[in-house]
Each structure stands twice: as structure tokens, then as C-alpha cells.
């Protein structure tokens, strides 16, 4: 069974109005199957972050539809959208955005506390175990390496057991060896736990960890590669860069 975790249908996102209006997504239709790891690539300004933000309910499309599981996001009130984001979506960014005065386990527990729920020790332990950091639970961010800090951020995104984990350049601030460790961990989450992952990246080596790479150009889908190799992705990106708009 290959159910869609997220489905975008003819999504348009226009910023501004009149002469200065910019359309970042042009009737984009795209589905992400449950349990798969997808990389989103494309030149700067092609709409990757806008796609992620619309798919994750952080931004509202100008028109079109976004379905998370069976839920249509575009018609939700702000309150319901906030709740859905909190309960069903995980997001990690290039910057780890950890609170420096809190320990790893306190950072991980924060989304549940902010939601007014009392995090169980087991849930926090489980989230840290999923990223291989149970032995660092009492450390503060300044006592952790960059890769460990991003693992804490991923554990924090996973504490609610989200339907989809989104990453906007999650390994962009890491050196290549650390980046590879984090990507292998994400790969394992898709393989072993059926976690759906959607990740924007500029790095062909990072994209090669995904099941599928989708390419955007000028706010439109510009093809996809299944079971991508870093070489094939790099060649594709080079061709895209050489194609005049
Ligand atoms: N808040 C905004 N206001 C106006 N224009 C915006 C806004 N956000 C994005 N854009 C425009 O929309 C287009 C797509 O931007 P987006 O950030 O989605 O691209 P991207 O592919 O993620 O780029 P990069 O790889 O450089 O991060 C760009 O032309 C950008 O300038």
C-alpha cells in the first residue's frame, strides 16, 4: 500500500501584489508517499522553501489544495492549523534553534510542554534513543557537537510522532562526515520506522540518501529521479543551471 502522506494539488503561492508580485509556486501538483524519504532540489529561488512551508502548514497557498493524510489544510482556521502542525508535523532547519539554557532532554520535551502536555520520561527517552543520544540527555547545547545538536533538534521534532518530518537544509551547517551520519539516521527512520521525510537540500550527496529527488525550476516541477546517485543528481543540477530561464 502506498498511501500519500502529503498531497499538493495545483498549489499557487504568490507574494505581494501588482507590479512587485512574485509567484513562487505555479499550480504545483506533487505527492509524497507515506514512509518514503524525498529530497527537494532546484536552483536558488525555484520555490523549494515555499513548497515546504505550504506542505507543512507554515504558510498558506494563494490557491490550490494541500492534503495531510486525509485532512485538507487550506480551509483550516488558524487555531486548527496550529494544532495540526503541533501534533502531526515535525520541522528541522539548518540552524538547530535549541534553547541554550535547557538540557537536551528539556529541549526535546519543549513542544509537549508548550502544548500544555506533561511529557513522559519514556517519550523523551524514546525520542533521544531514536537519534542515538540517550547518553547526552543532561547536556546543554554548548556541550554538544553540531551533529549532536541537530540530532537533538530532530528528536524534538519527533517527540509528537509526526506524520511527516520536514527538513529545510537540515545538514547545511554540518561538515560532510557529520552530515552523512545525520542523513544515515534519517534514512534508517524511513526504512525501519516508516517515517515520511521531505528534505530540501542543495547537496547531491545528501539527496542521494533519499528514495526520490524531485526537482523544481521556477516554481514548477521539473522532473524526478528515483533511487538517485549523487553523480546523477549532480549531473541533473548542472544541466538545470545551464538551461536559460
Ligand atoms: N516572503 C516573501 N516575500 C516575497 N517574495 C518571496 C517571499 N518568500 C519567497 N519569495 C520569493 O519566492 C521565490 C521562491 O523562494 P524560495 O525561498 O521558496 O526559493 P528556494 O528555492 O527555497 O531558494 P533558496 O535555495 O535560495 O533558499 C523567490 O523568487 C523569492 O524571492
TrEMBL record:
SUPFAM superfamilies: P-loop containing nucleoside triphosphate hydrolases. Pfam families: ABC_tran. GO terms for cellular component: membrane protein complex; plasma membrane. Residues 6-243 form the ABC transporter domain. Keywords: ATP-binding, Nucleotide-binding, Transport. InterPro entries: AAA+_ATPase (IPR003593), ABC_transporter-like_ATP-bd (IPR003439), ABC_transporter-like_CS (IPR017871), ABC_transpr_LolD-like (IPR015854), MacB-like_ATP-bd (IPR017911), P-loop_NTPase (IPR027417). SMART domains: AAA. It comes from the Bacteria. GO terms for molecular function: ATP binding; ATP hydrolysis activity; transmembrane transporter activity. CDD domains: ABC_MJ0796_LolCDE_FtsE. This is Putative ABC transport system ATP-binding protein. It comes from Actinoplanes regularis.
Amino acid at each position: 500500500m502506498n498511501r500519500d502522506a502529503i498531497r499538493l494539488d495545483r498549489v499557487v503561492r504568490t507574494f505581494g501584489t501588482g507590479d512587485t508580485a512574485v509567484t513562487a509556486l505555479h499550480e504545483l501538483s506533487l505527492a509524497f508517499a507515506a514512509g518514503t524519504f524525498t529530497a527537494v532540489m532546484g536552483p536558488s529561488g525555484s520555490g523549494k522553501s515555499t513548497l515546504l512551508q505550504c506542505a507543512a502548514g507554515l504558510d498558506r497557498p494563494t490557491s490550490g489544495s494541500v492534503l495531510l493524510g486525509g485532512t485538507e489544510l487550506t480551509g483550516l482556521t488558524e487555531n486548527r492549523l496550529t494544532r495540526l502542525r503541533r501534533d502531526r508535523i515535525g520541522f528541522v532547519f539548518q540552524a538547530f534553534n535549541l534553547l541554550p539554557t535547557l538540557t537536551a532532554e528539556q529541549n526535546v520535551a519543549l513542544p509537549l510542554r508548550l502544548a500544555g502536555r506533561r511529557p513522559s520520561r519514556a517519550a523523551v527517552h524514546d525520542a533521544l534513543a531514536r537519534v542515538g543520544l540517550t547518553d547526552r540527555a543532561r547536556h546543554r547545547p554548548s556541550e554538544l557537537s553540531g551533529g549532536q545538536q541537530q540530532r537533538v533538534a530532530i528528536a524534538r521534532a519527533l517527540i509528537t510522532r509526526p506524520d511527516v518530518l520536514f527538513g529545510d537544509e537540515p545538514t547545511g551547517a554540518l561538515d560532510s562526515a557529520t552530515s552523512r551520519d545525520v542523513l544515515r539516521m534519517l534514512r534508517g527512520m524511513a526504512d525501519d520506522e516508516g517515517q515520511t521525510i521531505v528534505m530540501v537540500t542543495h547537496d547531491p550527496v545528501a539527496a542521494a540518501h533519499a528514495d526520490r529527488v524531485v526537482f523544481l525550476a521556477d516554481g514548477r516541477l521539473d522532473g524526478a529521479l528515483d533511487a538517485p546517485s549523487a553523480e546523477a543528481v549532480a549531473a541533473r543540477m548542472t544541466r538545470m543551471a545551464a538551461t536559460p530561464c
